[in-house]
Amino acid sequence: MWAVQAEPSARLDVLFATGAHLTGLLAGYGILVMLFLMARVPAVEHGVGADRLARTHALGGRYVLSLCAAHALLALCGYAAHADTDLLHATLDLLGYPGLAVATAGTALLAAVGVTSARALRRRVRHETWRAVHLLTYLGAALAFAHQLAGPDVAGGVLSLGLWSLLHATVAVLLVWYRVVVPVRQALRHSLRVIGVRDEGPGVVSVVVQGIGVDELRAEPGQFFRWRFLRRRLWHTALPFSLSAPVRDDTLRITVKAAGDHTRRIRRLRPGTRVLATGPFGALTAHRRTRRKVLLLAGGVGITPMRALFETLPGGPGDLTLLYRAGSAEQLVLREELEAIARTRQAGLHYLLGRSDASFDPLAPQALRNLIPDLADHDVYLCGPPGMSAAATTALVRAGVPEDRIHAECFTF
């Protein structure tokens, strides 16, 4: 599309304009890709993994914002060179055009989303606030699309206009279908409600949800849903929580650690609360297994999907081992259940306790080999906080486990 419209010339204003067209088209296409990655298409999330999609989305967002900035700067320089004026007067002149004012507003919205998603600021912003600002992406994308329709690259031909419009329509339909229609349809079909809330430890609770025909969801151990509890101050936010037990008797169970306002309110849920659950998502399932022996390595509340896998992964005596990393014994969650499963299945269970800055690292390669001498022959399922997951992956590779046999999902809020 860009090449068809490009005008070969050595004039400075034309060179700037040509660069502006290319970066603008790339930015517009990049926005579509970012929205598609977060459309929650089950085939994509199951095949790639929701955590990997989220990281790709975050990295791609930086490129898109850089392309938007480059597009604006090149267009401004091109106009200033063509009109033989300075950048300030060129900016004021361009903002007088309605189409460019719309583009500026869209870029500002996307920039606001990018700023609140920056790692340094993200830690200081409540998750609910971040999600509210992130919704501006849709408005920013719509304004960007309106601006693109006024440019020669898209509107210059019937084929290009039709193709560009079809791409946007496809992504819009996927977003509406999987983020709005599917959750509502599942809520009406399965009528999910909270039937119990149980304390599991300091700041940790398990929530049991029951519905009609829950087996139809085909949720597998290791997967997660995005949960929305329909009560005051909770209904507006959906967060991903893994199943902490296999589906049985039309019930689903999640185990949640208080990490923000939303998760702290979950412990005050009452039986009968209606629930919207979208999913299941995630690729950390038995389908990834390639070896007879399996090591499950969990850190903190990352024990929840590991506990479900610990109970259900096929295996004989000695085939399964669970390592549970925590700061202290008081921080262990679902301990009685884990020990009962280990006894019943004759599986290995080890608690790796202690502060992460201690002189002895329980996740060091030699320490792992001492616990599991044939570690290199195992598949490894890993779930925990980002720092712990990164350190564990490095240690496992150094201990001889091929990286393609380390199956991990990592979420942080």
Automatic annotation (TrEMBL):
Pfam entry (one): Ferric_reduct
Statement: the UniProt record of this protein carries the keyword Transmembrane: yes
Transmembrane region(s): 20-39, 60-81, 101-121, 133-150, 162-181
A molecular-function term among this protein's GO annotations: metal ion binding
Subcellular location: Membrane
PROSITE patterns per the UniProt record, alphabetical: FAD_FR (PS51384)
Keyword Cell inner membrane included in the entry's annotation: no
GO cellular component, one term: membrane
Name the UniProt record assigns to this protein: Ferric reductase
Membrane topology recorded in Swiss-Prot or TrEMBL: Multi-pass membrane protein
Required co-factors: FAD
Domain annotation FAD-binding FR-type: ranges: 187-287
Domain of life: Bacteria
Species this protein is from: Streptomyces venezuelae
Keyword field: 2Fe-2S, FAD, Flavoprotein, Iron, Iron-sulfur, Membrane, Metal-binding, Oxidoreductase, Transmembrane, Transmembrane helix
Annotated InterPro entries: FAD-bd_FR_type, Fe3_Rdtase_TM_dom, FNR_nucleotide-bd, MRET, OxRdtase_FAD/NAD-bd, Riboflavin_synthase-like_b-brl
